[in-house]
Amino acid sequence: MKVYLAADHAGFKLKEEIKKYLSEQNYDVEDSGAFSFEKDDDYPEFISKAAEKVSENPDSKGIIFGKSGAGEEIVANKFKNIRAVLGFSEENVRLSREHNDANILSLGSEFETLEKAKVLVKIFLETPFSGEERHKRRIEEIEDIENRQ
Question: Which pTM does this prediction carry?
Answer without folding.
Answer: 0.96
